[in-house]
Amino acid sequence: MPGHRTKGFCASAAALALCAVLAGCGGSGESAGGGKVVLRYTWWGNPDRAARTEQAVALFEKQHPDVRVQTSFSGYDAYKQKLAIQATGGDAPDVMQLDYRQIDQYASGHVLLDLGKVEDTLRTGEIDPGLLATGRVDGKQYAIPQGRGTETVVYDVKAWKASGVPLPRKGWTWSEWADDIRELARKTGRPGATDPGQSEDAFEVWLRGRGKALYTKDGGLGFTADDLAKWWTFTDRLRREGAVSPAEQTTQLDGSVENTPLGRGKATADFNWDAPSSGYLALIPTGVALAPMPSGDDGTPGQYFKPSMFLGIGAHTGHPEEAARLIDFLLNDSGAAKILGATRGIPVNETIRERTASELKDFDKTVSDFQASLEGTLKDPPQAPPSGDNALQTTFQRDYDQVSYQRMSPREAAKNYVTEAKAELRS
Amino acid sequence: MTTTQTPAAPPARAAAPTKRRPKRQREGAAWVFLSPWVLGATVLTLLPMVVSLYLSFTDYDLFNPPHWVGLRNYVQMFTEDPRYWRSVMTTLTYVVIAVPLQLALALVVALALKNMRHGKGFYRSAFYAPSLLGASMSIALVWRALFNDGGTVDHLFGNGGWINRPGWSLLAVALLTVWQFGAPMVIFLAGLQQIPAELYEAAAVDGAGKWRQFVSVTVPMLSPVLFFNLVLQTIQAFQVFTPAFAVSAGKGGPADSTLVYTLYLYDRGFVASHMGYASAMAWVLLLVIGAVTAVLFRTSRSWVFYASEGDR
Question: What distance in Å separates the CA atoms of residue B159 and residue A225, rounded to the nearest whole number?
Fold first, then answer.
């Protein structure tokens, strides 16, 4: 064989191998099973949320024997990527959980069904109109929030108490937080918290504490490279001191609680959203508690109630009616509410909220109490983030990686980010 | 690149001389037999290529219709995107590490197997197995677990695992490729067996030792195969995706250290929804690989020895 291997043969083999790079991708599928209507329902979350969702779905299937629901879930980062690919391939799930930052992009990209078409099945009468409006784009309802969430400092109660450092308190500022974290690291011999530098969410809270916002009203960038450089200098110093998690730990964050330093037993506290923090309980059996996010140095609160975990229907679904029925069930059915508790935040259906408030137990009650403690003290939420924010959240993490691995100065990385963000928001 | 036209049914020419008919018919039959490949190549390769060339001059978010922006994607890529250049450097580093290592390993194993008396078939299969397994996502995930902190490599070397250290992560990805040396190994083995034994005998008679025989007989006689493997592996290495994607959990991290070209292309196209930009990146990659291949062919004149041409 090699004797016959001529240049011509080599050349054509090479040419073929070359072409492989340009042949892209494609394909879509339609599922059907056994005479039943099959719905695909996807969400992100932790195993606790998964178990409860499966239970609720089973109840739905019992009530609707003609429908079978195929569920799938993953951590937020993986979910976001997968959904993006399904959406662009015209293969979005029938029912999908969405983040606030995905609504604008997917609504204007015709991925989501106008829920006005199924309003007879999907009842929204018992949801606060202001909250409901957060799922509207250009006057049409594309998604419905399942709850509202707010950010929190979640911490290992036993470890924090044992360290002797005063417990987190309402109204603490970022510099008080930093002092406590330093003290914790000194006493416990491990970082006090996850490095918040990588988190666009934490940055937003810090920024709002200084009276600014991530985005302007017309969807431009609401801060300057100076602001970001200041934030990253702050976190960079804490990391160098060993007060927050080292780069090798921080880079493993993927939106799941299992891969956070707190979840891995390598730190005492973390930043997260309140409802998903239930996932820590499986990892820290001695218990976790929720504390408010630090405020600006003049006491301006940065955190806010964010409409969370929207549900939407794929624009190309073959079964809009059944999909609407599933969403209606998840939002308005009292049986479902009992199972789901506050795993996606406090229920939005007001009747159900009132009825179940007293029945909430365990971590659901913790979340409910935490939100009640903040009621009336927070500023209004920002408007829905522009389309580009979905990609920028990842860019933010990546650029901070350059800082935490000491490949760039905070200022250099901040300038890079602002350039990238402006390009992203322009297009 | 060879292009192929779609099979057009040969027009029935009643007036055609009867003498030509058999050949025409044979040609027709050839096209029929070729049709599966021709159809596949046209619909799955050629057409998408043309579309991607068009898209590379547009701003296309996959949801709304593309609109023409001329050369903007290319200009942005070369002048305004530091991450693009980082991905280029990462890919070049990867190619320079993975290709020579893989070929060297393949050749060494092939040489060892060639002179084996017993169990040759078994070892050949055993060494080839990773090539079959290695391209799969599951092995890449195992790799991630091996090199993660708390993983096997961490326990052996105690440096916190490679995949979370920017200086080491790319090496972990490259090793996954190197480990799949089976395909070039089998080709080397076939090449080695084609070398006439009398050449070695003649060399031995002239007093050449093992090393001398390797340098003066094996290498020149094997050079066409070596060249073939080099070209193919280089082209594949430029397009590496799966190992980098899986080992870095889709992010190309830490600190972009495993953000190889195609991974960044995927990120731009499917995660950030800039398909026009991604298409432009794909075309630049095609041109660069084409150029690198051309350079390899040019240099091959001075070191590849074609026995068949020598006979002429």
Answer: 35
Dist CA B130 CA B111 (whole Å): 19
Query: Which residues touch B286 (CB under 8 Å, ≥6 apart)?
Result: A18, A21, A22
List chain A residues with CB under 8 Å of B166. 405, 407
Sequence length of chain B is 312
> Under CATH, to which class is A37-149+307-374 assigned?
alpha beta
Q: Enter the pTM of the model.
A: 0.80
Q: Which residue of B has its CA nearest to A6?
A: B306
Nearest to B249 among A254, A402, A405 (CB): A254
What is chain A's pLDDT, residue by residue, as a tens digit (427 residues)? 344 445 555 555 555 555 445 544 333 334 444 678 899 999 998 888 888 899 999 999 999 999 999 999 888 888 988 898 888 888 899 999 999 888 888 888 889 999 999 888 888 888 888 888 888 888 899 999 988 889 999 999 999 999 889 999 888 999 999 999 999 999 999 999 999 999 999 999 999 999 999 999 888 999 999 999 999 999 999 999 999 999 988 888 888 888 899 988 899 999 999 888 888 888 988 889 999 999 998 889 999 988 888 999 999 999 999 999 999 999 998 888 888 887 887 788 888 888 877 777 788 888 888 888 888 888 888 878 888 888 898 899 999 999 999 999 999 999 999 988 988 887 6
Q: How far apart are CA A127 and CA A349, in angstroms?
A: 5
B256/B173 Cα distance (integer angstroms):
13
- Domains of chain B with CATH codes: 83-311 (1.10.3720.10)
Element spanning A33, H or E: none
Out of B235, B271, B308, whose CB is closest to A14?
B235
Q: Which residues of B touch A3 (CB under 8 A)?
A: 194, 307-308
> Which residues are CB-contacts of B209 (< 8 A; sequence separation ≥ 6)?
none
Which is the CATH superfamily of the domain at A151-303+388-426?
Periplasmic binding protein-like II (3.40.190.10)
C-beta of residue A280 within 8 angstroms of C-beta of residue A288: yes
Domain ranges in chain A with CATH number 3.40.190.10: 37-149+307-374, 151-303+388-426
Nearest Cα residue in chain A from B86: A402
For B115-218, where are the alpha helices, taking DSSP H only?
Answer: 120-134, 137-147, 152-157, 166-179, 182-194, 197-205, 210-213
Nearest to A163 by CA among A243, A241, A54: A243
The minimal CB distance from A407 to the residues B80, B255, B290 is found for B255
B residues 214-273 near A, CB within 8 Å? Answer: 222, 224-225, 227-228, 231-232, 235-236, 238-239, 249-256, 262, 270-273
Which of A11, A109, A427 lies nearest to residue B59, judging by beta carbons?
A: A427
Output the DSSP codes for B234-265.
HHHHHT--HHHHHHTTTTT-STTTT--HHHHH
* Contact residues, chain A, for B48 at CB < 8 Å: 22-24, 26
Token duo for residue A228: 């970001």
Cα-trace Rg, chain B: 24
Quick check: A207 and A259 in contact, CB under 8 A? no
ipTM: 0.75
Distance from the Cα of B148 to chain A's closest Cα (Å) equals 10
Dist CA A366 CA A361 (whole Å): 8
- Rounded CA-CA distance A58/A64 in Å is 10
Q: Residue B168: closest CA among chain A residues belongs to which residue?
A: A248
